[in-house]
Amino acid sequence: MEKTGTTTIRQDVLLTAAIMAASLKHASSIEDISSLLIQLKKSGIDLGEIALRRVPSGFYSEDVESENRGAIEQIEAVLGRLEA
């Protein structure tokens, strides 16, 4: 059954997009990236299995922590610098 008013995007794409967006904002802590995921969720994007929990400094996700943080460096090595 399809959810009404939500968009489903693959989890790896969501995590990568959040990490890249945080990097562009020079805010790459786990809490910063998790806050971006919360914004996506509030806009109607289904986060699937990405687990988020509230912490004193905002939000936290073990999924973000376990994401290969070297992936951005690998992508930039091939495609060039992603930051503006």
If you had to describe this structure to a student in words, what would you say it looks like?
The chain has a two-stranded parallel ribbon with strand order 1-2. It has a two-stranded antiparallel ribbon with strand order 3-4. The chain is globular. The chain has one domain. Strand 3 and strand 4 form a beta hairpin. 49% of the residues lie in helices and 12% in strands. By secondary structure, the chain is mainly alpha-helical. Helix 1 packs across helix 2 (30-42). The protein has helices at 11-24, 30-42, 62-66, 71-79, and strands at 7-8, 45-46, 53-55, 58-60. The model has no long low-confidence stretch (mean pLDDT 79).
Query: How much strand?
Result: 5-15%
Give the number of helices: 4
Measured on Cα atoms, how large is the radius of gyration?
13 Å
- Overall shape: globular
- Structural class category: mainly alpha
Largest sheet: 2 strands, parallel
Count of discrete structural domains: 1
Element-level helix/strand string: EHHEEEHH
- The strand count comes to 4
Low-confidence stretches: none
* Largest sheet: spatial strand order: 1-2
Mean pLDDT: 79
The helicity comes to 40-55%
Terminal residue distance:
40 Å
